[in-house]
Q: What sequence folds into this?
């Protein structure tokens, strides 16, 4: 891939049509010349690396335990460094590069599928390493990828702003992932000053081309015929297109200046008012069903719904069996809760303090995502999915992450 001339910005070759169009037609503020993205080969991180280069970064260092994917952008401004944030020395070496304008700390053990100690090690201790090293090397900006689940209690979240959600620390977290992301979030906020500026930005339910966790797992279950609507199917959820999330993360760096209202704060960015009917939510099972039908599978709405109480009962049994056999079972208490509760936010704080607006509208983003899965995901599927296992692409990544962190002492 050659660097583009001045007339057209460089565009990541793996971008979808919509991502390309949005990158070319949008007017975006400048980005730091030298950027670091931890977790840069993940779903979000990879796109973040690409968008930073598209917006003019001269050097973006991706730092991830998982090597870059086959379609990773081979661009002279990108360094794909393989490394582990739980390895203090490696983090120190990473952040000793002179002139780093901002660290986007995005690496995390994500999802419910890792062994518990790994969440603490990666999400909490890894974040401490990033903070300590950034301070040591005089880097004064960190944008942290947080999660709304840090503030979930299991109660419905039906259109709340961040400041209306429970304050950290919570008495009890719904999963270790959420707990350790919350621990990291609190550290990120605690260290924030006018000289060492930090902010947390969270998405909700990221989707888009190249997603290898959310949609593949649900579509695999739908393909096997096992997926049913949980509860009455009318729970309200908000989504965040991967480009909207990365845009939020990128512009959050611009909001880091002395006395900024964003300093040390937590924001959620979503597809906002581009959700159906100008609301800030969609009906989860209706929208998911669009993807199920687009793949040629039977509509979930033509099948029997599973009552929440029955699901909870089964999930408790599955959690017990999973623990006993040391396997990951998709039907668990956490999944039943999040797939039946309302989970959507009012993003007015991010609009006001970060100047955030979605750059890709939900309808066009979702339609393209369905197309992308039909063309790129569907042909690769063997008809062997079940409710016990998790998507094979997800499992491969998990194995590398788990193995790598075991090596670090
Ligand atoms: N996808 C979502 O819906 C969602 C929702 C809320 C928050 N987030 C946050 O967004 C960020 C990115 O998530 P994602 O969806 O891209 O997940 P992902 O799993 O695709 O990306 C995370 C990346 O971090 C890397 N990583 C894990 N352990 C590491 C280590 N020890 N050292 C270096 N790298 C390591 C992984 O290899 C992976 O590439 C995470 O911080 C996550 O908590 C995502």
A:
């Amino acid at each position: 891939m050659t660097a583009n001339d001045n007339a057209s910005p460089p565009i990541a070759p793996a971008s979808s049509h919509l991502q390309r169009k949005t990158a070319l037609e949008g007017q975006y503020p400048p980005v730091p010349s030298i950027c670091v993205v931890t977790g840069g080969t993940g779903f979000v991180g990879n796109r973040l690396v690409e968008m930073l280069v598209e917006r003019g970064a001269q050097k973006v260092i991706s730092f991830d335990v998982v090597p870059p994917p086959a379609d990773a952008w081979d661009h002279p401004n990108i360094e794909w460094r393989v490394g582990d944030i739980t390895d203090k020395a490696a983090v120190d070496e990473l952040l000793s590069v002179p002139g780093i304008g901002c660290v986007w700390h995005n690496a995390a053990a994500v999802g419910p599928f890792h062994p518990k100690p790994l969440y603490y090690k990666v999400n909490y201790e890894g974040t401490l390493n990033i903070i300590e090293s950034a301070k040591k090397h005089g880097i004064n900006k960190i944008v942290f990828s947080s999660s709304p689940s840090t503030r979930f209690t299991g109660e419905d979240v039906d259109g709340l702003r961040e400041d209306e959600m429970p304050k950290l620390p919570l008495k009890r977290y719904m999963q270790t992932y959420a707990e350790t992301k919350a621990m990291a979030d609190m550290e990120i906020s605690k260290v924030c000053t006018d000289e060492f500026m930090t902010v947390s930005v969270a998405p909700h339910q990221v989707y888009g081309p190249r997603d290898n966790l959310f949609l593949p797992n649900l579509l695999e279950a739908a393909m096997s015929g096992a997926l049913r609507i949980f509860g009455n199917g009318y729970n309200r959820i908000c989504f965040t297109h991967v480009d909207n999330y990365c845009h939020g993360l990128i512009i959050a760096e611009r909001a880091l200046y002395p006395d900024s209202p964003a300093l040390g704060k937590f924001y959620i960015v979503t597809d906002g008012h581009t959700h159906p009917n100008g609301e800030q939510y969609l009906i989860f099972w209706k929208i998911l069903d669009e993807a199920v039908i687009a793949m040629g599978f039977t509509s979930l709405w033509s099948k029997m719904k599973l009552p929440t109480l029955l699901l909870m009962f089964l999930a408790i049994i599955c959690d017990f069996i999973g623990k006993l056999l040391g396997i990951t079972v998709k039907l668990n208490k956490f999944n039943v809760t999040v797939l039946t509760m309302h989970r959507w936010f009012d993003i007015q704080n991010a609009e006001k303090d970060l100047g955030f607006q979605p750059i890709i509208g939900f309808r066009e983003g979702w339609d393209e995502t369905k197309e992308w899965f039909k063309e790129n995901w569907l042909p690769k599927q063997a008809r062997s999915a079940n409710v016990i296992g998790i998507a094979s692409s997800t499992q491969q990544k998990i194995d590398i992450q788990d193995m790598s962190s075991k090596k670090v002492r």
Summary: The pocket of nicotinamide-adenine-dinucleotide is lined by residues 38-39, 41-45, 64-66, 84-86, 106-110, 122, 126, 145, 147, 181, 202-203, 205-206, 213-214, 401, 405 (CB under 6 Å). Confidence is low (pLDDT under 50) at residues 1-5, 383-388.
